[in-house]
Amino acid sequence: MNILVWHVHGSWLTSFVQGPYDFLVPVTPERGPDGLGRARTWEWPPSVREVGPAGLRGAGIDLMVLQRPHELGLAEEWTGRRPGVDVPAVYVEHNCPHESAVGTRHPLADRTDITLVHVTHFNRLMWDNGRAPTTVIEHGIIDPGHLWTGEEPRAAVVVNEPVRRGRTTGTDLLPRFARTVPLDVFGMRTEGLCGRLGLPPDRCRGRDLPQGDLHPAMARCRLYLHPVRWTSLGLSLLEAMFLGMPVVALDTTEVREAVPAGAGVVSNRFDVLEDAVRRFTADPAYARATGEAARAAVQARYGERRFRDDWERLIKEVTR
To answer: Which residues make beta-bridge pairs with 27?
Structure first.
């Protein structure tokens, strides 16, 4: 089976392409947003093949996996076939609704021929899905191993473009938490972040690392801090739990489902969050025990095998 899928979210796609199919990933000469091709920072199997727009028109395609509204038109333009009409298609919605938690209608709400796949139950609840058939396939993470050492009494934060995303990802909360524990903020475009927040180097470090260096660097931090207000369930939170890190997180979107009691501290109260940060920082044994509970919880719910089984069932259903 040949599956057409654009390279949009590298972490999610890395798990998705482990399945037993051939994956056609569009590539353009400039490798722009609609033609990134194969990943440069993740390891993908040989079953992932780059195909240019001209090559897609004659390619055998059994399923289209769409992730952005404009891909509906792009797929028809580049392949000559209509998603959901000429070729089976599903649409993966990675995000929470942006405008309103109760009044945002999904771009596919009027389509009954394309299954809308949400990555969390919270997202399916909040979007107005209209007539679209919906399902939920929760994230699946390739286990990076129990790498936590916690040797540095610091908190790891992972967020891409923290300045642009601002309050959405809780960037404005970092100075408050930095008073309690020094921060390592990992992610793209974190250079200069700490200076913009008015934080001295001893309280905050921006770190844009290659993907292969990210997990070991995170795992040297004592805890993982997730100050996100309004995004879908962050893969970085789940990856931190796989690393064996204790987590402290805002009680927003799907976080409560992902972090059960004993695996970390989840709250919207600053005093509770700051007390948790202090205790993990001061007590490495407590941090280790909580991180081990976090790892066990995330392995049970967000493992790669469950993710692949869920997708295989859906793929068989929509291509039957």
So the answer is: 36
- Mention every residue, 6+ apart, whose C-beta is less than 8 A from residue 238: 139, 141, 258, 298, 302
DSSP class per residue in the chain = -EEEE----HHHHHHHTTSSSEEEEEB-TT--TT-B-S-SSS---TTEEEE-HHHHTTS--SEEEE-STTHHHHHHHHHSS-BTTTB-EEEEE-S--SS-TTTPBPTTTT-SSSEEEESSHHHHHHSB-TT--EEE----B----------EEEEEEE-SSHHHHGGGGTGGGHHHHHTTS-EEEESTT-TTHHHHTT--TTTEEEE---HHHHHHHHHTEEEEEE--SSSSPPHHHHHHHHTT--EEEES-TTHHHHS-TTSEEEES-HHHHHHHHHHHHH-HHHHHHHHHHHHHHHHHHSBHHHHHHHHHHHHHHHT-
Token pair in block for residue 129: 């899905």
In angstroms, the CA 170 to CA 250 distance is 9
Token couple for 284 = 């490495």
Say whether pTM exceeds 0.85. Answer: yes
What span, in angstroms and rounded, lies between the C-alpha atoms of 6 and 34? Answer: 7
Q: Angle at which helices 211-219 and 235-242 pack, to 10 degrees?
A: 60
Query: Which residue reads 């919880």 in tokens?
Result: 297
Q: List residues bridging with 206 in a β-sheet.
A: 185
pLDDT tens-digit profile, the chain (320 residues) = 999 999 999 999 999 999 899 999 999 999 999 999 999 888 999 999 999 999 999 899 999 999 999 999 999 999 999 999 999 999 999 999 987 878 899 999 999 999 999 999 999 999 999 999 999 999 999 999 999 999 999 999 999 999 999 999 999 999 999 999 999 999 999 988 999 999 999 999 999 998 889 999 999 999 999 999 999 999 999 999 999 999 999 999 999 999 999 999 999 999 999 999 999 999 999 999 999 999 999 999 999 999 999 999 999 999 99
